[in-house]
Amino acid sequence: MNNEQLTLLQRIIKGKWIGKGFLALLALAVIWWVGGKALQSPPLFFQQIINGIQLGFVYALIALGYTMVYGIVRLINFAHGDVFMFGAFVSFFSVSQFQLHLWPIKALPSLPPALGIVIGTLSVILLSMVSCAILAMTIERIAYKPLRDAPRISALITAIGVSFFLEYFGALPFVFTPNFITYKRPFDIVTWYIQGGIHRLEAGAEAPPGSVIFSNVLIIIIVVSILLLVGLNYIVRQTKIGKAMRATAYDKPTSRLMGINVDGVISTTFAIGASLAGAAGVLYATAYPQVVFWMGIIPGLKAFVAAVLGGIGSIPGAFVGALIMGQAEVLSAGYISTPMRDAVAFTILILVLLIRPTGIFGEPEREKA
Amino acid sequence: MLSTTPAHSPTQEIGQDGRALLEIRGLTKEFGGLKAVNNFDISISRGELIGLIGPNGAGKTTVFNLITGIYVATQGSIKYKDTELIGLQPHEITRLGIARTFQNIRLFPTLTVLDNVRIAYHTHAGYSMFDAITHSPHYQKAEKELTEKAQEFLSVFNLHTRQGEIAKNLPYGEQRRLEIARALAASPELLLLDEPAAGMNPKEVASLMDLIHFIRERFNLTILLIEHQMRVVMGICERITVMDFGEVIARGTPEEIQNNEKVIEAYLGRGAAALSQKLQEKRSHVAGS
Amino acid sequence: MKLDRHTLGFWIVLIGLIVLIQILVSLGILSPFWETLLKIGAVMSIVSLGLNLIYGFNGQFSLGQWGFYAIGAYAAADVTYRWTQMNNASGLMVLLLVVALVGIAFFLTAKLVARLRGLDPLSAFALYIVAVLIAAVIGVQLGRVLIAPATQILSSLPPNLSLQIVYLIAVLLGGCLAAEVSYLFGLPVLTLGSDYFGIATLGFTIIVKVLLDNSDTLLGFEEMKGARGMVGIPKTTSWLWVALFLIIVIILLRNLLHSSHGRAIISVREDEIAAKAMGIDVAQQKTIAFVLGSFLAGLAGGLYAHINGFLHPNTFNFIKSFDPMIIVVFGGLGSVSGTIMAAFTWALVLEGFLRILLPAGFETWRFVVYPLFLLVMMLLRPQGLFGGFEFPYLRQVLPKPYTPKTEEQLSLVHAIEEASEGD
After folding, report:
1. Which of A277, B192, B253, C369 has its CA 20 to 30 A from that of C337?
2. What is the β-pairing status of strands B222-227 and B247-252?
3. Closest chain A residue by Cα to residue C130
């Protein structure tokens, strides 16, 4: 088709200009609103960004499980958020009831206390990860595997059922109880504030106005998340099981013919995803120290939105999407209204699906068999 | 491209009434860099029965999916009675008069045989949603006509005794026939058949060939047929286009195609082509002596 | 239309049951507790029938039904609240004009979009948004002008009659509003794969709940009182009203499903690509099913709002949105009879008997047992308890077997018989 022959109207349609204009207006409104608020109080804005990073890393760990499982079995694993909840509760019990975080100090008194706390905290996280992995493998074996050849929606309904079961089983009085429980961190919180340099904030003291504060929770979240991400990347890119996972995600029947134990690979994928969610559960609970049986639902859904935003099936996509979601949530809660943060997450989902359903890192169209 | 088409005579490009019913030029479809169809040309006149053959993965079904609008072409044009089809929705293309069947039968599996055919009549049902939810007299009349037409159709395919049967419970051969009946109920002028003989034994294939001849006469159809089995195409098609790796490698009458080296090579590999040449030489030698 | 024996029996039993219940209620034999549960059962039947149309018949997995239910409930409640508590028809006239003008705006925009061939979805969506905003603003202004005359006319009627009229219109408008919102929401998300659609609609339900929690501050409807819950809605929904609505819905739905339009909707569930190849506009059929289903949700919401006279956003929590899904799955996808029976069973057994019979702690156990049922169901009987069963009236009747009439047709049959002897 010749470009000169097009009328103005045709050019507008072909260039998708109406939609682009609409988006530009929307973006402008958001920038104007957030920008205006940010200029009013820059320290508050930076504080929000830091809170957003903290949240974004936790979402990233959950989103990875979603994206990996979806990539391999095309199932939105609704129960993933509840696995996250389970991880938080496991760490709650291991810290409050069994003092697991204190074992290095008890067993090896010669250890420097700081190192002891680090090892103790890592053991708490590790225990949650392992428990979640076992839980997810059990779920996969009992509920999903029999439905692998059923319509996808049957599996989705089953996943919703599993999610409900985990929540309300947890809500039983003799399990996790239906109430909010205060979470005891495995380490003492240390806070710093930034105002012309980084200063330690003494316990109980107020940060000077106009400063930005952060705590060792932020540092732990970032360090642990990055370690896990690097580890995951290594597993997926470098190891045999990682190659098998990628092959299975691409083409299940052929992978089976190539001698890959597809069932084993799927089970492993669930386990890896769940262990990341378990770690996320511990980190989330240390950052927002309350646990309750339904705590996994909304973070789970938001992490799913993050996975879609990044391009489902893509690991870097899930990470980037989660960071964006963290910022969007914190900024909308801070600058629009607190309850709106849930609405904003799903507005983002709808916009992504409208503009680029494959997400930021999505794959292009492939020929269907 | 055109240089590789040995039998390229003007009579094949232009039909009896002087213009082609379907005219495809330079059709290309890429999937992430892979060219599934590359620079594909074909021209079909009214009333013709044309075969499109080629080995597995040659891009035949992709061509069908491009014509029927399931895929959008990367390049090229598809003209049907002077209407450009690229950019149209699949249902719009069907409403212009192009119907198809599928390689792996796609009936409406849990519906009855009758409903399968009645759905194809939906665009001609001629009553509104309001008529439908009130079951107005107009609905009663139109629905009765529609049902009778559908039954008549089934009887043409000898399926009228099966009208209440659930489609997926039919035997394979009847499912194939039902699929063709359903495609014809959409009242097409151009019928695209995608491997109708797949999974049939030689006897069934023979009767299928008769059936195709019959519906072509009865419904005044132009037919484009994909087939994997040479036997079928050679038996009924007037002209054949051969594809391999997304490109047209030969065109011509069944006899021309049968002796085309490239075709034999594409189907059987280079060694076999050489062998077949030797055989032919031998045969002609024998015939000559 | 001729009634056969079974159909007649079906109607006699159905109407007999309804009248019997009304007599029991009037005589005070049936306690208000059970009367309310029966009404809830009927309301749930309507919501679930709507969901079954979307999911069971059209194959689109929607978790948004509860959001549309909430929209219908709050919209209708606001109209009757303003009529009874504020003594004016402001809610009625504004909602009426907004719904009407937005409907017209949709119609015109759809025509425009159809004429601008090849418009991308985002641009089309933007056009719709602009059109809706303009129509809504004009609707609000025009509606305000008409409040006074409408109030006057309605006030001249006997109070009970005027309330019933306002109530009826309010319920219908609630359904229409839900339908219009679903149309707008469906534009971007209906073309997605089924599970993405599920998540997007779940998100919709969550957004609606958040907005209702802040209805007094964010939306500016003070009488809805946000998370404190809306009180003072007239308790107008009687058993006869819900029964009447349920019967009308059943008849219209049955008529739709037994028509070419219904078959087009079903064909999308069966095989989208084959449906397209048969000339069916799949996107259009999805929109029709989604909008009609959401209309039923909104309608049911309006009925629900006037049962207890009290609405709280927690009723519309997305966790409860799984109730209609469970009803549809248990009753059988694509089964009208199954849905109705499952909805009444759900109301009477799960909400009624078990709550009375079992100790207080059961409430938590209920949601442990539910999903287990669901899991067993998906594994053992994915087609639902009633599968393809329908009551006589709702059953698809096959036309008389066809006998070829003329000689020509007969010879054709013979010809084809010969041709197809092989199979």
Report:
1. C369
2. unpaired
3. A22
